[in-house]
Amino acid sequence: MLSLLPAPGRESAGTVVVGEGWQLLTIRGIPLRIHPSWFVILLVATLAFQQQYALSLGNRLAPAGLWAVALITALALFVSVLLHELGHSLVALSQGVKVKSITLFLLGGVASVERECGTAFGSLMVAVAGPAVSLVLGISLLAASHAASHVSAVLGLMVEQLGTLNLVLGLFNLLPGLPLDGGLIVKALVWQISGSQRRGVEVANASGRFLSLLAVGLGTVLLLRGGGIGGAWLILLGWFGLGAARNQKQMLIVQQALKDLKVRDVAQRRFRVLEADTSLRQLSRMRLGSAAPIGQAGDGVPAAEGDGSSLPDWLLVCDRGRWQGVIDDAPLQALPVQCWDRERVGDHLQPLSSLPAIPESAPLWQAALQLDEGDHQRLLVLSPAGLPSGTIERPELGDAVLKKLGLRLPANLMTAARRQNGYPLGMALGQVARGMVSSGDVTPPNGQVGR
Fold first, then answer.
1. Among 11, 85, 116, 396, which one carries the catalytic annotation?
2. Which residue among 55, 174, 224, 339 has the highest number of C-beta atoms inside a 10 angstrom radius?
């Protein structure tokens, strides 16, 4: 069995992504979910236990009784996996980290947390908690197996099985490679010694990749020698580990790209410029000619044409070369049509400071954090002189990061991202930026912190 605590929030390196599944109940505010793949491993475990009990108990139980005991043992094993994950989760809560869910799936259990612990010691405590629970359970159950056997041979055998499997679960998870708990322990220790969380991730990921390749190799040898399900299981675990290592490496590249790329590298010009003496009638004509309605409080201006965006351009106002402010359609809604010819946009301006803004020299992670924290759709990019020089939105930001990964998206996918004003492929770059802040990898300006 494999029980995993992923790196935080499905956003950091080593994250294991498992579908939501069905929620069964809530424990200490933590939703417990069952992924559909869990029923597959439940069936496999029940079959394995039934065969073991048939060999050990012989005719002492009817066939139906053997199947019932096997099913109960399999369910009890997954209760152990749940306790393992609760160990992680409760310690995470004590460190001030929100646990989003615990999901049981094909390879055991996975806890999804909102963010990384802010310290190496906190991460170490969270990583150690799960294996500690499994080892204590294993030792306790094995110690109780003799007394249980005096009550019933079946009960004694069941307790012994569960004790042994909990020991295996605890020891297996201590193997020093991501995404196992042992890999998270290695990451925390290297982080503590070197002062660099990134270095800890790199070391733990390299170790995890080696262990995964070893598992695939041993599984292949076993399978060729007739090892059957044991060899196939090792190959599956190794394949899963290699996938996690690959995702980990990609996450490191994403984090580095967010630090290396500057806002000016991806800024667009999603605003138009009007003179202050433009009449409201002309503004109305622009509004009627736009593909999307004008929004409120600085978001409302004619949409850009031909890029599939549903977000209208901002409309900035100048007066003889000097920036004056931003206009939306509030005056058109407030004033009668008869006034539109004599009223000028310069009389109905919002200040430029009403728009969320970012310096063009800022790294991309700051833009991702600001877009996410303020729930903004767009940021105004400011030149070193503090003047508007462009805009930045989620689609362009995500596209720049994907290019760093060597990926170029088809035009239809970028059009869909622009239409939704979201990151391409559902990238959660705001969460990645928050994880970078919480781990101390970067320091936000002006004391801003990720929530």
1. 85
2. 174
Q: For the ranges 224-238, 242-256, 320-334, which has the lowest average pLDDT?
A: 224-238
170 shares its domain with 296: no
**Percentage of the chain modeled with pLDDT above 70:** 88
Alpha carbon of residue 57 to chain centroid: 47
C-beta of residue 419 within 8 angstroms of C-beta of residue 308 = yes
pLDDT of 6 reads: 34
Has 360 been annotated as catalytic? no
Residue finishing a domain among 172, 190, 208: 190
pLDDT confidence tier of residue 298, bands split at 50, 70 and 90: very low
Identify the domain containing residue 14 by its residue range: 2-190
Which residue, 160, 190, 220, sits at the end of a domain? Answer: 190
Does 224 map to a domain?
no
| DSSP code string of 361-400 | TSBHHHHHHHHHHTT-S-EEEE-TTS-EEEEE-HHHHHHH
pLDDT of residue 310: 59
Please check whether residue 223 lies inside any domain of the structure.
Answer: no
Q: Where are the alpha helices (H) located in 261-357, listed in sequence order?
A: 263-266, 280-289, 330-334
**3-class DSSP state for residue 193?**
helix
Instruction: Give the residue from 84, 83, 117, 114 showing the smallest Cα distance to 99.
Output: 114
Residue 264: the pLDDT is 92
Residue 276 and residue 184 share a domain: no
- The total of structural domains in the chain comes to 2
Give the whole-angstrom CA distance, residue 183 versus residue 288: 59
